[in-house]
Structure formats: structure tokens, C-alpha cells
Amino acid sequence: MAPVVSRPNPVAVGTIVWLGSEVMFFAGLFAIYFTLRAAAPEMWASEANKLAFPFALTNTLILVSSSFTAQFGVFAAERLQARSTGWRPSQWGMVEWFFLTYALGAIFVAGQVYEYAMLVSEGVTLSGNAYGSAFFLTTGFHGLHVTGGLIAFLLVIGRGFAVKNFGHREATSAIVVSYYWHFVDVVWIGLFLVIYVLK
Amino acid sequence: MRANVVLMWVLAGYFLVAGVLYIVWNHNAGHPFDPAPTLTILLSAGLSGLIGFYLNAVNRSQGGILLPEDRLDADIDDGDPEIGYFSPWSWWPFILGLGGAVVILGLAVGVWIALFAIPVVLIALAGWSFEYYRGNFGR
User: Fold this and answer.
1) A34 → chain B, closest CA residue
2) Which residue ranges does UniProt annotate as crossing the membrane (chain B) (predicted)?
């Protein structure tokens, strides 16, 4: 009689291990930021004043709220419910929650593009000085990650529409994309605290 | 999986202690605080802790059912389950790799080349993601 054994989902565990490597990628970016800041504190004092704190705070809250909507999408995917059964949010399926998440994430990216345009008009550019390089490298790589997450949400939503029977394999892709989204969200909270709050 | 969890937490604890030790030692040796190595060592603790935390969560959600390698009475073939669905063959990884290579080439020699390659990457991504969601093999 063979014993009952269990296997963790290799896709989910693999995603977490990969996110571990992403931790170290952002560790490098944070190290760049802090090193440059330590080398030129007076530049930070003058350049960081150009940041619009209320705008960034609003954008941050939008991104954080998108993590919650993504999690509700995961709960729907875990009930194997792809589509809504009614108009109330409690009846939404994964597709509706992920569309909402996508919209919130897209607002965040659009807000960042607007913020970049404002900063460039005030003379903060990628090649301008050390502060500009540090600011655009850290937030830019984060923005690229958010954009990648948006594409991933589209692919998962597409699978929700394309599949005949929404099953555990589709739920797994929804869950791992949400892991990635939460990770990118937490990294942004770190970046926000370091760049906008600590200045 | 218990052993894996403990190993990851031991690593996390080691990096945490090493990071604090580094900060103190660096300071006592009279050097200025250097964020690059400090952050790298401390976030290595984050890297190990993240995996340890997740494996622990998976382990608990299994409700006491162990992996075959954690059981003394398991047979070799208990560790040989169906581990996933793998495409027997596919052109999409090749196309995605080609598109990615041309994007990087474009970044190196001229951005206009990358602009032509980005659609190839997007098409390959969609093609790979939906390969088994349409046509004869659609789920």
C-alpha cells in the first residue's frame, strides 16, 4: 500500500524562487540609490524638493488598492469562477476583478509617465545628474515591472475567456501572477518610503 | 519539506546576523557606512526568508501530508508523480527568443530595430500562452 504523498505546485514554488532573485535585483537598485545619495547629499537636498509628494502618495494608494482587487480575483479563481454571475462585486469572477486591477495598474503607470514629464520639465533627467539617474533607474525599472505585470494580467484574462472549463491550471496562472503583483507592490512601498518620505 | 523550511530560515538568520556584524565591524574599523554591501547582505536574508516563509505556508496547507522524501516508508516511485503539463514541441520559445535577441540588438545598435522586434515579442508571448487554449488542442 503506497502512502498518501503530496506535492507542492511546482509553478507556484518556482515563481516564489524567481521572486527571490527579483529581491536581489531590486537590492542592487536600492544600493545604487543609497550609494549615490551618500556621495552627494547636497544634490539630494535640492533635487528631492522637486518631487510632488501628494501626487506620489495618491498614485501609491492606487497601486496598493490594486493588490487587494488582485487578491479578490485570486479568491474567485480559487473557487474556479472565471466570470461574474451578477453585477455585485461579491458575484464577480476572476476576469472582472483582474480587469479592475488592470485599470488601477494602468492608472499608476500613466501617473508615473505624467510625473516623469513634470520632473523632466523641471530639469531632472536620466542623464542630467546623479539624482536623476538614481530616481529614474529605480522607479523606471519598477515601472517596467508593473507594465510586465499588466501584460501578464491580460494573458490570464485571455485564458479566462479562451478556456472551455476553468480549472486548477488556469487558477494557478492567476495565483502566480498575483504573487508577482503583490511583490511589485511591496517593492513600490519600499521605493516610495525611500525616495519620497526619507528624501 | 520541514527540512527545506528550516534550511531556508537558518540561511535567513545567518545573513541577518552577518549583516548586523558587517555594519558594526565596518563602523568600528573607522570606515563610513557603505549601503551597497549592507543592503545586499540584509536582503539576502529577505531572499531566503521569502522562500522559507512560502514553503512553510505550503507545508501547513498540506495538512500533515508529507512529501515522499520526508517519509521513511515511501517508495522511490512515490516521488515520481505527474509534475505538470509540458508541450511535446513548440515553435513559440524559438520565436520569443529570436524577438528578445533582436530587441537587445536594437538597444545596442539602434532603437529603431527594437521597435520592429517588440511586436514579435508580444506575438510570441501571446502565441505561447494560448498555444493550448485554441484549435485542435484547446482546453
Assistant:
1) B35
2) 6-25, 37-57, 94-125
Which residues from B are below 8 Å from A9, CB to CB? 58
A172 near A29, Cβ under 8 Å? no
Inter-chain CB proximity B74 and A24 less than 8 Å: no
CA-wise closest residue to A151 among B60, B29, B26, B126: B126
Chain B contact for A189, CB < 8 A? Answer: no
pLDDT digits (tens, 9 = 90+) for B60-114: 888 777 888 788 888 878 777 667 778 888 999 999 999 999 999 999 999 999 9
User: What are the pLDDT digits (tens) for B30-63?
Assistant: 988 888 889 999 999 999 999 999 999 988 888 7
Closest Cα in chain A to B47 = A20
Phi-psi region of A88 (alpha: psi -120 to 50; beta: other; left: phi over 0): beta
Q: How far is CA B111 from the centre of its chain?
A: 30
The greatest distance separating any two alpha carbons of chain A, rounded to the nearest whole angstrom, comes to 73
How far are the Cα atoms of A68, A187, A197, B83 from residue A62, in angstroms, in the given order?
10, 15, 17, 38
Question: Could you report the predicted ipTM of this complex, rounded to two decimals?
Answer: 0.85
Question: Count of CB contacts below 8 A, A vs B?
Answer: 105
| Cβ-defined contact of A24 to B32 (cutoff 8 Å) | no
Distance linking the first and last C-alpha atoms of chain A: 64
pLDDT digits 0-9 by tens, A3-48: 666 678 889 999 999 999 999 999 999 999 999 998 888 898 888 8
* CA separation for the pair A91, A87 (Å, rounded): 7
Q: How far apart are CA A51 and CA A194, in angstroms?
A: 13
Which residue, among A4, A5, A30, A150, would best test binding to B if mutated, counting the most B CBs under 10 Å from its CB? A5
Provide the shortest C-alpha distance from residue A71 to chain B (in Å). Answer: 17
